[in-house]
Amino acid sequence: AFTKNDVKLSGDVPKTLLLQKHSDYLASYGLNKDDFEYCMTEHLRMSGIYWTLTAMELMDQSSRMPKEEIIEFITSCQDNESGGISASIGHDPHILYTLSAVQVLAMYDRLDAIDVEGVVRFVTSMQQEDGSFYGDKWGEVDTRFSFCAVMTLSLIQRLDAINVTKAVDFVLSCMNFDGGFGSRPGSESHAGLIYCCVGTLSICKRMDALHADELAWWLCERQLPSGGLNGRPEKLPDLCYSWWVMSSLSMLNRIHWVDKNNLEQFILASQDAETGGFSDRPGNITDPFHTLFGLAGLSLLGNTSIKRVNPTYCMPQETIDRLKLEPQILH
Ligand SMILES: COc1ccc(S(=O)(=O)N2Cc3cc(-c4ccc(C=O)o4)ccc3N(Cc3cncn3C)C[C@H]2Cc2ccc(O)cc2)cc1
Ligand SMILES: [Zn+2]
Fold first, then answer.
1. How remote is the CA of residue 290 from the centroid of ligand 2, in Å?
2. What is the pTM of this model?
3. Which of 36, 110, 266, 277 has its CA 20 to 30 A from that of 289?
4. CA-240 nearest atom, ligand 1
């Protein structure tokens, strides 16, 4: 049932965490190469592997993943000329999939499987005069790509390869009066882009430049009576916004500003007890993307049956610790 721009949780939604169902769902996802959805997501396969592996890592189930097959796939997706990595074999390299590949290899501690100098060459070639980043050779600018650039380079300990000051200046030029951020200067504030911009400032240790209270206030206003969070005013709640909003509030050290119990109820209700996995909201089709953000959100809410997730990188905290990375958190 829909009240205005919100959902009404019916009585028969899941109220406990169905970990085994999610592990089985992700372990079987992609086994049937002819599966319609599997074919329809070839253009984002590398990210699909990152979402699936990270979710399995958080459930301590990554041993069920075909590790060597994944590593060989990543090696075959790196473009020798540009150094960039594509979503699938033969596709164009893009900064989104270069990041996903580096995140997966960092979790596997197998960065030796790719030409790391090639990745540095690709990412630095995307930075523009104003400090912004293209996603690929077609030249689209988006703060999402700034976040991909600094996350990728920091994971391989090469943040020095770009102009960090200009990268930060461009992100700050996208700050709006509500304290939020959009994809380019003047773009409307959106929870997903706020996560990207706050994450960029966290990695570059420049969170001092944020208007933390105004921003945290705008983020908390995303919570609806159902407990779910939306991405912009007047929008429906969506599970992945739970992650964008909560990880941003975590970096701002204001996660206590949301109603945790209500939000946890919405996340648990977005599970599918039949198929396993999480969907964008209760009753819809599940997918690996929302399954990761459901589990990561519960981890941020303190659910200890899930491993700790790092709010900046959306990767297991133990991986960030092993890499000796210290993304800034406000105090
Ligand atoms: C089903 O329609 C879409 C629309 C956009 C995309 S997207 O790649 O631009 N992207 C990520 C995303 C992925 C999925 C999905 C389905 C199956 C799999 C297998 O791994 O992954 C589903 C949705 C989705 N979206 C769209 C979306 C999420 N919540 C509401 N919507 C409309 C997000 C979208 C943008 C994006 C976000 C984060 C990120 O790291 C990368 C891309 C993908 C499918
Ligand atoms: Zn979503």
1. 6
2. 0.97
3. 110
4. 29
